[in-house]
Design a protein that fits this description.
2 domains, 5 helices, Rossmann fold, about 20% strand, alpha/beta, 3-stranded antiparallel beta sheet
Length: about 325
């Protein structure tokens, strides 16, 4: 469903206009001032360019079956109680297939790269719906909090997904956060061999492996992310992770379709109220970009010992 909503005010006799906040939905709608032209009688003509907002909807009946044949007249869309105009409504349907392959994909060719090339998420051109009827999946690896064992489990799980569960309608991108920014290693593609080659290179290493990492605030930080002092950011490791996720959502927001970001990490620690501002900023950006987060903890099930781990001394008889 695509709708357009904007609000602006302008002076009928002046030579300037003030564009107020847009009334668009969570995906965001920016109203750009194109030109202001004054005529001889003192009136002003205001030209604006409004960005259409895409809303992804799934409509099912009581039995869980999709309902076909719906049009824009079947929906009512409001923003803060204000009805919004729906420009058009389009039905997209993904093929109902169980799985693409089983085992090793036929014709699979895996190549180990000496150095992974960085790319970018290609934005859609106006009127070019190249991802129609496709499912967009972004595999996101947070290397800053995963020790080598967790990295291996995460990358192996991604390989298994591509080999056994990737469907013909799936397009997969690969993103990596290693402390110095977001690396887009592969734009959305259905080339399994290319995806597997990148994942295998991450497992083997690009000439150097990842050192044992930790999320301890006392650890030394050798990154240069976000243009701030490294020692300052040692205290805000969680904010850095959330900020990186926000950046990834912005990159994916260049595409109008629904995107799913598969987040591989060894957990994400929130420190009380300290990370709430960045957390809400990341969630807000993801909503506007139409990105949903699907976290996968590479550690698996984790349980703590009742009396603490080996890093703490025994409390003796005081616990009895």
């Amino acid at each position: 469903m695509i709708h357009e909503a904007h609000h602006f005010s302008g002076s009928a006799l002046g030579d300037s206009a003030d564009c107020g906040p847009s009334t668009a939905s969570a995906a965001g709608c920016s109203v750009a001032l194109r030109s202001l032209r004054g005529s001889v009688d003192g009136t002003t003509t205001l030209h604006v360019n409004s960005q259409l907002v895409v809303e992804t909807l799934v409509v099912k009946d009581k039995k869980g079956n999709p309902i076909d044949g719906l049009t824009a007249k079947d929906f009512t869309l409001t923003e803060n109680g204000v009805p919004q105009a729906i420009r058009f409504c389009e039905h997209q349907e993904l093929p109902n297939t169980s799985s693409a392959t089983s085992g090793t994909a036929s014709g699979e060719t895996v190549h180990i790269y000496d150095q992974l090339a960085l790319t970018q998420i290609s934005p859609e051109l106006l009127g070019n719906m190249r991802y129609k009827n496709r499912r967009l999946l972004a595999l996101y690896f947070d290397m800053t909090v995963m020790p080598p064992a967790d990295q291996l489990r995460a990358l192996t799980a991604a390989q298994n997904f591509i080999r056994t569960q990737m469907r013909p309608e799936d397009l997969v991108a690969i993103m990596r956060y290693s402390g110095s920014g977001i690396d887009v290693l592969q734009d959305f593609t259905d080339d399994r061999s290319q995806l597997l080659s990148i994942l295998e290179t991450l497992i083997v290493g690009e000439g150097q492996g990842y050192d044992e990492s930790t999320d301890d605030a006392s650890a030394s930080d050798v990154g240069a992310a976000f243009g701030q002092d490294n020692n300052e950011f040692n205290i805000f490791n969680t904010d850095r992770q959330l900020s990186a996720l926000q950046t990834a959502a912005k990159l994916l927001g260049q595409l109008s379709e629904k995107k799913s970001l598969i987040y591989f990490a060894s957990g994400l620690r929130l420190n009380g109220l300290d990370n709430q501002a960045q957390l809400h900023a990341t969630i807000d950006t993801a909503i506007r970009a139409d990105v949903s987060f699907w976290p996968i903890d590479a550690r698996g099930l984790v349980a703590e010992a009742p009396l603490g781990d080996a890093t703490k001394g025994s409390q003796g008889s005081t616990v009895m």
